[in-house]
Write a structure and sequence with these properties.
By secondary structure, the protein is of the alpha+beta class. The chain is 69% helix and 7% strand. Helix 1 packs antiparallel against helix 5 and helix 1 packs antiparallel against helix 8. Keywords: Cell cycle, Cell division, Cell inner membrane, Cell membrane, Membrane, Transmembrane, Transmembrane helix.
């Protein structure tokens, strides 16, 4: 009879542990998924911002006799622009290339329209993402325009502001959902742990009544919480990166390849899983340690 009771308790304990681990894994999977989306959304936002270029123009006055001198001056100016703080990438556009692009945009194949290269050479500048900001864009343009040899800098400020506002709005929504999922993770994991500790409330109180210290009683529960939290986090991470790998292969798109960010995400998910599990275990166990024996029947 005693053996069957022990087997029943072991099965119930095993079932309880599996339920907790699965709950932790599912919650951390969703939390990690939001983390991956947030990381890639930020990188994709920066990528889009880098596509919004400004054009720095050289002097339109051009004399073929001074072509070598002008080419040298433009090369020096181009090198200076590349070193500026707001500049992510700079591309030199020659007069010949400017004319070719003008003909292409107008749908003209013949050179008859332009007897010579009438468009000035320029530098196409992709700004760093942090400078694609309505508060900083004017300062960045002034910095580029201050370089000797640059006579004018043009950009579509309306488009930049609109893109910046839309991207900021999207990132805020994603960040908001990430915080919401973090709160849900705390609540759901805490509830799972509380149910598990609730089933052991009589054991906790019995140990206390026979003279066991609170620290002694808490220790095995904390160790078990660390193990369950780690196992749940690992399972959640395996599922997360498995789904993410399949998803990226299916759509054939290059997402963030920064291993460091993935490393920090893994540490975050592991840390959240273990931390919430341990804290919930301590709080739930402490509640029964402070309660009276009669209260255990009404908890």
């Amino acid at each position: 009879m005693a053996k069957s009771v022990d087997e029943f308790n072991k099965k119930r304990l095993r079932s309880s542990n599996i339920t907790v681990v699965v709950s932790i894994a599912l919650v951390l999977f969703l939390l990690g998924l939001m983390g991956l989306i947030l990381i890639n959304a930020q990188k994709y936002s920066d990528y889009i911002k880098e596509q919004l270029v400004v054009n720095a123009y050289f002097d339109e006055n051009y004399d073929a006799k001074d072509s070598l001198k002008i080419a040298k001056l433009e090369e020096e100016t181009f090198k200076k622009v590349q070193t500026l703080a707001p500049v992510k990438k700079a591309t030199y556009i020659s007069r010949e290339r400017a004319s070719q692009e003008a003909r292409k945009s107008m749908g003209i194949d013949s050179d008859a329209l332009f007897e010579e290269n009438i468009f000035p050479s320029s530098i196409e500048v992709a700004l760093k993402p942090e400078f694609v900001d309505p508060a900083k864009i004017d300062e960045a343009i002034k910095t580029i325009k201050s370089v000797p040899g640059i006579v004018d800098v043009k950009n579509d400020s309306t488009l930049m502001v609109e893109v910046y506002n839309n991207l900021s709005r999207i990132l805020k929504w994603i960040l908001g959902f990430s915080i919401l999922f973090l709160i849900l993770a705390i609540v759901l994991i805490n509830n799972s742990i509380r149910l598990k500790i609730f089933s052991k409330r009589f054991i906790i109180k019995t140990m206390q009544l026979v003279g066991a210290k609170r620290r002694f009683i808490l220790k095995p529960f904390i160790v078990e919480a660390v193990v369950l939290g780690a196992i749940g986090a690992v399972i959640g991470l395996i599922a997360l990166f498995g789904v993410w790998y399949y998803f990226t292969n299916q759509i054939g798109s290059a997402f963030v390849q920064d291993d460091q960010q993935y490393f920090w995400l893994i540490l975050l998910v592991l840390g959240v899983g273990i931390l919430i599990t341990v804290l919930s275990t301590i709080i739930a166990t402490w509640r029964f340690l402070k309660s009276n024996v009669d209260d255990l029947y009404y908890s």
